[in-house]
Structure formats: structure tokens, C-alpha cells
Design a protein that fits this description.
The longest helix is centred in the C-terminal third of the chain and has 31 residues. The chain is about 30% helix and about 20% strand. The chain is globular. Helix 1 packs across helix 4 and helix 1 packs antiparallel against helix 11. The termini are far apart. It has a single domain, classed as Chorismate synthase AroC (Chorismate synthase, AroC fold, 4-Layer Sandwich), CATH 3.60.150.10. Strands 8, 9, 10, 11, 16 and 17 form a six-stranded antiparallel β-sheet that branches. A five-stranded antiparallel β-sheet has the order 1-2-3-7-4, covered by helices on one side. The protein is an alpha+beta fold. Bound molecules: flavin mononucleotide. Flavin mononucleotide binds next to helix 11. InterPro entries: Chorismate_synth (IPR000453), Chorismate_synth_AroC_sf (IPR035904), Chorismate_synthase_CS (IPR020541). Belongs to the chorismate synthase family. It catalyses: 5-O-(1-carboxyvinyl)-3-phosphoshikimate = chorismate + phosphate.
């Protein structure tokens, strides 16, 4: 449906060519100082027409606050946000009256609802994500102010071009077999450093939003090549979340990583999601993959963190040694953790101008060469969407845990239970 979250509830509305798109956000803590500028920053990072690597659709995507905020302060009531669709060109889509676009959502929406928006992707368009990005910006303001939480996403690959540490070959044993005990050396110290310190300002230095300049240049060429060939190309986004408290996530069906996965895979064009050691963890023996417990600076901790800061679906508050598919994160302060949503895979956009042999809605074979303005690669614009969905998940899980802890704190202290049932003091 169109609503996500339990306490921080985000409902988005709007189609690609209707009058406006936006969101209703329920559950924002009252008293949070909020202005349109807080929200606009992320919307402007998401908007089309930012560079020659994105769709030329020219939308300013200026947010209008409709409700829930007065004199720069959240009232605790539903926040209504609206962004006008201004640069519609519905006639660009006349071919798709006959042909459902291969691998787009035209056919499935029609099958499901029996009717569909008259032009463009309708609700399946990435215009829908404007509401998410706006809601994420509000959540982030609270998360940063109260917890110092930082969320930074960046482009980690376009096509087969990846950040350098991702392309380093696995180490080899003398007999030529891949050495599954030696898993650290695929990681460059530079990349560890990057993940520990990366900021949005650094990410935005290059239009690809890849923070490694040489790789970013190669990615640019790859996207331009797809564009010139009237084709498209996919990619991945990596997201780092820093300074998250322990205890978040609701076993068993709403485990933290399950909520992250749902959030990320609800973004249009996503095809894959990995958290913690991800698929890489399947290649490492348990003796290497387990995170042994140790007492560090008086705090019960783990030596490594292949778990990605989540165990049993609950954030563990660990110093994090976090390995993405091919990456590594340096330790953090005790009591805080770092999670990467590595990697969120985005497919090559479906709409391409290159002629494609396909079939009309009535089954007649034919050739579709789609007109219209499209992203040759979505990942540079997907970065703020990934950050927004991470912020919405965190905000919701935090508010759920707050409710539980507050309710428990009203009870008298427990004195009757055996000590093995309580948190031991270190
Ligand atoms: C930021 C962003 C921009 C997108 N731009 C386009 C586009 O220009 N053309 C296109 O065909 N798909 C684009 N998509 C993807 C479609 O919205 C998506 O593929 C479509 O809704 C079908 O859904 P699915 O790919 O998740 O199955 C974009 C996605 C994102 C996240």
C-alpha cells in the first residue's frame, strides 16, 4: 500500500503526470524545529535535470508545507507536504498507449487495477519517491539532533565499474585456490577510511555521486555511452549509518534488517539488497565469520562485526567492524554502531529509446522505441532516496523502542528474578 511505518507513518501520494506529489507524515515528535529548507536540501539532491547524467525533465521540486508545522515548529499533527508536477509532457508517451514498456510497470499495473494512469509510469514513476525523501529529511533532522545519527549513501558501482576495493581480486593460496581464510586483503585502507568519514558534501562533488574521482570519471563515461546508444545501465548504492543506539528492531517479523530490506526494495528499480557481510559471508567459514565477544574498555563488545551491527534482528550497539559485500568499516565509539545497507542494486532503467522487439497490449508483435525523457542510470538520483528510507526505518524503530522503554520505566525495579535473567554489570 502507500503507507510505511508504525509510529512514524509516511503516506505518499501522486503519479508522474498528475497535479502534485507529496506525503502525509504522522508521528513526528512535536516541538521539532522544521522549515521547508530542511526538507528542500534532500529534494534538490533527488530532483531531475541535475546534470547530463540524469533525465532532462526540468522540475524544481520546491516543497510546500500544507499542515503540521507552524512558526517553524512541528505541532505533532500530520505534516502535509506538496510538490507540484510542472514539466509534464504526457504526449511523449503515445507509443505506450499501444505497447506496455518491457520491464516497466505498465502491464502489471493494468493487470492489477484494470485501469492505469493515462501517461508515464503513473504511481510506479520515481516521482512518487519525492514524498519519501521529504519524510526522510524530517526524520533525519530529529535523528541527527537527538542521537547524532549520520546517514550517508553513495554510488558504489555503475554497470561493471566499481569502487576500487570492490574490484581487487580475492587472495589466492599457493595452489591457486581462493583462500577463504584470508578475507581482509580485498579491502583497501582508503576505502575503510572513506566509509568512516564520508560526508554528503564529498559525495556530491561529482555528478555520479561516486566519491572516488577516478572511478567517478569512468562511471560518467559508462553512463554517457549508454545514453548515446539510447540504452540504459544499472548500478549499486552503498549506505552507511553511523551512531545508532542498540536495541532497535522488533523480532521476529520486523527485524531491523528485514525493515531495511523492505524499505530499500520498495524503491523503484531495485533488484538486490545486502546487509552486513551479505553474500560475502557465505564464502567465509563460521570460524572466521563469527564475532567473538570481548570486554573492551569495560564494555561487553565483539571483536569483529560481520553481523553488520544487527543480531537476532536487533541492533547490538557494538563497535562495528562492518564488512559490506567487499568493504570494511572501522570501529566506532562504544555504545554506537554503524550499519551499511550494502549494496542496493538498481537495474538499468526500463525506458529506452532504442527500438525493442516486443508486443502490444493486444498481443500483436511490434517494435517499441520509447520517446520521453528518461534517466540513463538511476543511481546518482537514488542516493537521497536510499538515505531517506534508512532514516524512516530508523525513526520508526526508535519511536517503537522509546514507547516500550518508557512503559517499562514506569514499573517498580525488578528485585525478584535470578541474576542470570538480568543484564550483568561489568
Ligand atoms: C531516481 C529514479 C529514477 C528513475 N527514472 C526512470 C526512468 O527515467 N525511466 C524508467 O524507465 N525507469 C526509471 N526508474 C525506475 C522505474 O520507476 C521502475 O523501474 C518502474 O517503476 C518499474 O518498477 P521495478 O523496476 O521496481 O519493477 C527510476 C527509478 C528511480 C529510483
Amino acid at each position: 500500500m502507500s503507507t510505511f511505518g508504525s509510529i512514524y507513518r509516511v503516506t505518499t501520494y501522486g503519479e508522474s503526470h498528475c497535479a502534485s506529489v507529496g506525503a502525509i507524515i504522522d508521528g513526528c515528535p512535536p516541538g521539532l524545529e522544521l522549515s521547508a529548507a530542511d526538507i528542500q536540501v534532500q529534494l534538490s539532491r533527488r530532483r531531475p535535470g541535475q546534470s547530463n547524467l540524469t533525465t532532462p525533465r526540468d522540475e524544481k521540486d520546491l516543497v510546500q508545507i500544507q499542515s503540521g508545522i507552524e512558526h517553524g515548529v512541528a505541532l505533532g499533527t500530520p505534516i502535509g507536504l506538496l510538490v507540484k508536477n510542472e514539466d509534464q509532457r504526457p504526449n511523449d508517451y503515445s507509443e505506450t498507449d499501444l505497447y506496455p514498456r518491457p520491464s516497466h510497470a505498465d502491464y502489471t499495473y493494468l493487470e492489477k487495477y484494470g485501469v492505469k494512469a493515462s501517461s508515464g509510469g503513473g504511481r510506479s514513476s520515481a516521482r512518487e519517491t519525492i514524498g519519501r525523501v521529504a519524510a526522510g529529511a524530517i526524520a533525519e533532522k530529529y535523528l541527527k539532533q537527538v542521537y547524532g545519527i549520520e546517514i550517508v549513501a553513495f554510488v558504489s558501482s555503475v554497470g561493471k565499474i566499481r569502487l576500487p576495493s570492490n574490484v581487487a581480486p580475492p587472495s589466492m593460496t599457493p595452489d591457486g585456490d581462493e583462500d577463504d581464510n584470508d578475507v581482509e586483503d580485498i579491502l583497501s585502507p582508503e576505502f575503510r577510511q572513506l566509509l568512516s568519514t564520508i560526508t554528503r558534501e564529498e559525495v556530491d562533488k561529482h555528478p555520479t555521486r561516486c566519491p572516488h574521482p577516478e572511478t567517478a570519471e569512468r562511471m560518467t563515461k559508462r553512463i554517457i555511452r549508454a545514453k548515446d546508444a539510447q540504452d540504459s545501465i544499472g548500478g549499486t548504492v552503498t549506505c552507511v549509518i553511523r551512531n545508532v543506539p542498540s536495541g532497535l528492531g522488533e523480532p521476529v517479523f520486523d527485524k531491523f534488517e528485514a525493515k531495511l530490506a523492505q524499505a530499500m526494495l520498495s524503491i523503484p528499480a531495485t533488484k538486490a539488497f545486502e546487509v552486513g557481510s551479505g553474500f560475502k559471508g557465505t564464502e567465509v567459514p563460521g570460524s572466521k565469520h563469527n564475532d567473538p565477544f570481548v570486554l573492551k574498555n569495560g564494555k561487553f563488545s565483539t571483536l569483529t562485526n560481520w553481523s553488520g551491527g544487527i543480531q537476532g534482528g536487533i541492533t547490538n550497539g557494538e563497535d562495528i567492524y562492518f564488512r559490506q559485500v567487499d568493504s570494511y568499516i572501522s570501529p566506532l565509539k562504544a555504545g554506537h554502531l554503524r550499519i551499511t545497507c550494502d549494496r542496493i542494486g538498481f537495474k538499468s532503467p526500463a525506458t529506452i529509446s532504442q527500438p525493442q522487439n516486443t508486443a502490444q497490449y493486444n498481443g500483436t508483435p511490434g517494435t517499441l522505441a520509447a520517446r520521453g525523457r528518461h534517466d540513463p542510470c538511476v543511481v546518482p538520483r537514488a542516493v537521497p532516496i536510499v538515505e531517506a528510507m534508512a532514516a524512516i526505518v530508523l525513526m520508526d524503530q526508535l519511536l517503537i523502542q522509546h514507547a516500550r522503554k518508557t512503559a517499562a520505566s514506569l514499573l517498580p525495579p525488578i528485585t525478584t528474578l535470578p541474576h542470570t535473567m538480568m543484564i550483568p554489570k561489568h
